[in-house]
Amino acid sequence: MKRTSRLRRVALPLVGLLLTAGAAQADTAIKALIPAKLINEAFSPFSVAKYMGYFSQEGLDVNLIAVGGSNEVALAINSGAGDVGAASPGQALVGLQSEQGLNLKYFYECNYRSIWTVTVAPDSPIQTMKDLKGKRIGIAAMGSAGINFGKAMAAEAGLNPNSDVSFVAVGSGAQAMTALNQKVVDALVFSSQETSKFEANGFKIRYLDTGEGFASLPDVGLMARREAFETNRPMLIGFARAVAKGYLFSLANPEAAVKISWKLFPESEPKNMDPKEALEGGVMVNKRRMEIWDSPKTKGVLGTFIEADWRRLLDYMKTSGVLKTDIPLDRVYTNDLIPEINKFDKDEVRKQAMAFDIGKMK
């Protein structure tokens, strides 16, 4: 009896030590905000990073949360409702005009060309951006950065963005296409992943020419609150590194990337479609988005911000009236984390992607 008692006295502290060690090694919980009503295959770098364990390798337990639009992401990160977010530089730039404005900074570039498109029905009499005068333009939600870029494109076409056009929230997917086809709105300003989904689901649309100057502007990037760069630098590096791996995986094996996205977010998989056609459509959506996730200007250093391109973006937004003042670039983004983010074996990730067996997915 005494021997049992002694064993208990020894064992209990050991159990406590093991539990403490386990807790110390637990992954850090992170809320990552995605600018969409539904996380689909266009955001596969994030889904792949989670499914393949890339986040876990960085000690992160990431919860991917769809929040509707980029402007909503920026405001939510600013308020502390999320730790990191992917967002188009719409409301973020508006809020960064003052040092006392939004408490945000970008730390990894995702999209090197604009994601924003203007589309009309195939039989619409609207042929150019100028023809939008007096028209109603549909956007997914009033929290979408589409309203910022829609106004910028209207101004670039010589229209008054506040009086010559009006913006109407029409939802997304079939809801948005119904609004267009029933002439509730005359045009749509949506991101390329949304318009690609329209086409993949059989809807007919026609793109208006917004000009190469606009199309070549930088877009979505990863952002966080400024204090995180001092207090949580390893988390930011680890998160972006995992996403970079997810991008390379998606590029090497788009079918697997699509299947992984649908596995994690089954509501994004098309219903009532032939599975082969659905996968082909998903791959099209994925490839179109992955095409703009890098640029020759980065020279292979993923996520690098290109100063000249961001200066053009700020000039464009100011000329169009979206921005009222100049913004110092060092208030908008930093490349300081990029070297650490790129410290991983890119070829190994590509090999992993090519060897991935869709048939063995759990």
From TrEMBL:
<keyword id="KW-0732">Signal</keyword>
<dbReference type="Pfam" id="PF09084">
    <property type="entry name" value="NMT1"/>
</dbReference>
<dbReference type="InterPro" id="IPR027939">
    <property type="entry name" value="NMT1/THI5"/>
</dbReference>
<dbReference type="InterPro" id="IPR015168">
    <property type="entry name" value="SsuA/THI5"/>
</dbReference>
<protein>
    <submittedName>
        <fullName>ABC transporter substrate-binding protein</fullName>
    </submittedName>
</protein>
<feature type="domain" description="SsuA/THI5-like">
    <location>
        <begin position="41"/>
        <end position="257"/>
    </location>
</feature>
<dbReference type="GO" id="GO:0009228">
    <property type="term" value="P:thiamine biosynthetic process"/>
</dbReference>
<feature type="signal peptide">
    <location>
        <begin position="1"/>
        <end position="26"/>
    </location>
</feature>
